[in-house]
Amino acid sequence: MSDINLLPKNQGILVSKEHGIRVVRFIAFGILSFVVFFSLILFIIRIQSPLTSLKKQEASLLSTLTLSNTKMAKHLIIVDRLTTISTVLGKRPQLDTIVSAFLSKLPPNVTLISLQITLTKVQITGTSDSLLDINTFLNNLVLMVTKKEIIGRLVLQGLSFDAKKGTYNFILEATLL
Predict the structure, then answer these.
(1) Is it the case that residue 98 has pLDDT exceeding 60?
(2) Nearest-angstrom CA–CA distance, 14 and 4
(3) What pTM, to 2 d.p., does this model score?
(4) Is the dihedral of CA 90, 173, 134, 112 positive or negative?
(5) CB 102 within 8 A of CB 149
(6) I want to staple 174 with a disulfide (CB 3.0 to 4.6 A). Which of 51, 101, 122, 153 is the partner?
(7) What is the C-alpha to C-alpha distance for residues 154 and 133, in angstroms, rounded to an integer?
(8) For 121-168, how does the pLDDT look when each residue is reduced to its tens digit (9 = 90+)?
(9) CB 93, CB 176: distance < 8 Å
(10) Cα–Cα distance measured from residue 60 to residue 177, given in angstroms and rounded to the nearest whole number
(11) Where are the domains of the chain?
(12) CATH class of 95-176
């Protein structure tokens, strides 16, 4: 017996083409569904992820650190300046102490004309009507030298008499300790 085909040849091809289109549509729909589902999951994860807040926090901390670094640099400059000032003030003679020490030893009838202070010496120029008052002033200064108060050495550089005014002029040089 021979095989008889009751279906026309074109119909078999149409059925297989329709079946192929359904399969392709099904696969395309599956892939599309997978992509949509996967995109939604990634979107939800990204929204719930603290990454954006961490990035904002990182940016704010970096700006804070930058401000802190400038503040720290200013602070270090100020500390350095204060240290330098303290060093300079420590090396500088205490002028108020020196002047008040000399003025406290000055008798009432002795007048200071000039008081020149350097880092190591003090030069005193003065005048008085009496040699006794100049002697009292010199004795007070010699006492300071023996006690090692402010001055270590005292030299009388000059003593003169001004006949027109009737006064005695003196020049002293004291070496500071």
Answers:
(1) yes
(2) 20
(3) 0.52
(4) negative
(5) no
(6) 122
(7) 17
(8) 999 999 999 999 999 999 999 999 999 988 999 999 999 999 999 999
(9) yes
(10) 58
(11) 30-89, 95-176
(12) alpha beta
